[in-house]
Amino acid sequence: MKKQSVLVVEDNALIVKFYRMVLERQGGYEVHTTEDVEEILQLVRSGKIDLVILDISLSNAHYHSRKMDGIEIAGMIRQDPAIAHIPILVATAHAMEGDREKIIAATGANGYLEKPIYDSRKLISEVETLLSAKE
Amino acid sequence: MLTLLWHISMETFLEIKQYMHFSEEDVAVLKKLGPIMQPHLKEMAERFYAEIPKHPEAFKVFSGQEQIDRLKQSLQRWGAGLFAGVYDERYVQERYLIGHTHVRISLPQKYMISAMALVREFLHQVINQQLTEVSFRMQAHISVDKILDLDLSLMCEAYFNASVQALREINQKLEESNRKLLESSQFKSEFLASTSHELRTPLSSILGFIRLVLDGVCQSREEEIDLLNDAFHAAEHLLSIVNDLLDVARIEAGRLEVQCRRMEAQPILKQVISLTSVQAEQKSVKLVDRTDSITLPAMCGDPERFKQVFINIIGNAVKFTDRGSVTVSARVDDRFVEFKVQDTGVGIAKERQAELFEKFKQVDSSLKRRHGGSGLGLAISKYLVERMGGRIQLHSDGLGLGTTVAFTIPVYVQ
């Protein structure tokens, strides 16, 4: 069976490193990572990606030299009928009261994890749940 | 300061006139009374100012013979106006102004009313003494009462309007301060939210990497050490954020101690520069020290805090510069040493430069997120420099054009 692919959109290099170790080694997934919005759209449209893990506050995400955050990126994905169905797992350090509801409503996310994210089993099970719901 | 409403509309005046049945007949009577009353107006003013400064409210306001003489004359003019037979716009505005003046000099309305009663009593006495024809005397009493009531109405109207205006201005100030309080409370909530965000990010790496090592995910001892190293750096980063937050809390509570004593800056500079040069070398950024060639005088400050400011500023410069150089220089004059840290880094847009020194605004800047740190460093540095008696300034021509931070520390004087 072909490996399933996860695209990680995250600006903190250490956190990307953590996702890679967990998802590749423990989860057996293929991991792509980028903050470039055009590359994100291209990857998702190519059909190579099964799930997107999306951070909200991003420092290098640009689209035609305009800065973007995770909410806008989710919006671009959801607006494109060809890729609108892709599961999005939001993983963010925004954890004040009401943030979860607001962000889920704004992104149409299928799952939501609050940082610190360090329980690898929980992360993998969340990813698995979303991937199996998709099938 | 009060902005006064200088005018009353003629419409209002005509309404009052009508309400009081002030007729052409009254005008004729008052005109006829004019020459009879004129010789007594001086006495009226004398009596008035013998009596009225005893009024407890007026006592505070009236002082000095010269002022009283001036007021006596204006009272005579006012009295002459009553009998001039011309009750036009100018007359109305003059009366209106007297009412305003009472508010401006903080005399209460009751003073105005009792002053009017004094005048009224005097004018009736004069009428009784001077007019022998009974029917004209009766008519004169009535017309004088009407014109005095009219005058008092105008003055009270003015008093009322000016008081409303004053209240409105107080209200505006209250609303303004209320808005500021709300804004500051909003800043604090945002500060709390972004602080929580900033703390969770390194915590994610610390907990995540330790968990991976404990779970035995690593394939070699080297990899374990590598992950623990990452966790360690994230923890150091977390510690620096916590230290900055504690400093901010101490500043807010007025409990951050900054000493001002004789201090030698050069050894501190050397220490900080050698500390930061490691970071700079990793990024291939050239760290140029121009303070070598000059001798700095002893300065007045807190060596620990001075070091903290320097670490902050040079640290920022290196952090925000990806290629080129960071240059440290110093300039000495009679009273101050000015330190300058100039970089060729990312720079900062003009409109955001002022925000950098504010505690609650810049915590969530995206630049800081890319480069790490609490984003509070400059706000803390500004506070420390000012407490040591210096000033701090930031200059950048814009994004991509580098940044210069300059600050002064006073020279030590025995």
A few lines on this structure:
The complex is a heterodimer of chains A (135) and B (414). With 135 residues, chain A is of the alpha/beta class.
Commentary on this structure:
Chain A has 135 residues and is α/β, with parallel strands linked by helices. Chain A has five helices and seven strands. The longest helix of chain A has 15 residues, at 120-134. Chain A starts with a strand and ends with a helix. In chain A, 36% of the residues are buried. Chain B is α+β, with helices and mostly antiparallel strands and 414 residues long. In chain B, the strands form two sheets. Chain B has a five-stranded mixed beta sheet. Chain B is elongated. Chain A binds chain B through residues 11-12, 14-15, 17-18, 21-22, 25-26, 57-60, 67, 93-96, 99, 114-120, and chain B through 192-193, 196-198, 200-201, 203-212, 215, 217, 227, 230, 234, 364, 366-367, 369-370.
Largest protein interface, residues of each chain: A-B, 27 and 27 residues
Number of helices of chain B: 14
Rg over CA atoms of chain B: 39 Å
Shape label of chain A: globular
Oligomeric state of this protein: heterodimer
Calculate the mean pLDDT score of chain A and round it: 94
Instruction: Characterize the main sheet of chain A.
Output: 5 strands, parallel
From the helix content, strand content and strand pairing of chain A, which structural class follows? alpha/beta
How much of the sequence lies in strands of chain B comes to 5-15%
Distance separating the two termini of chain A: 14 Å
Main beta sheet strand tally, sense and closure of chain B: 5 strands, mixed
- N- to C-terminal distance of chain B: 46 Å
Question: Helix coverage percent of residues of chain B?
Answer: 55-70%
SSE string of chain B, helices as H and strands as E: HHHHHHHHHEHEEHEEHHHEE
Strand-and-helix sequence of chain A, N→C? EHEHEEEHEHEH
**How do the strands of the widest beta sheet of chain B line up side by side?**
2-4-5-7-6
- What proportion of the residues of chain A is helical, as a percent range? 40-55%
Number of strands of chain A: 7
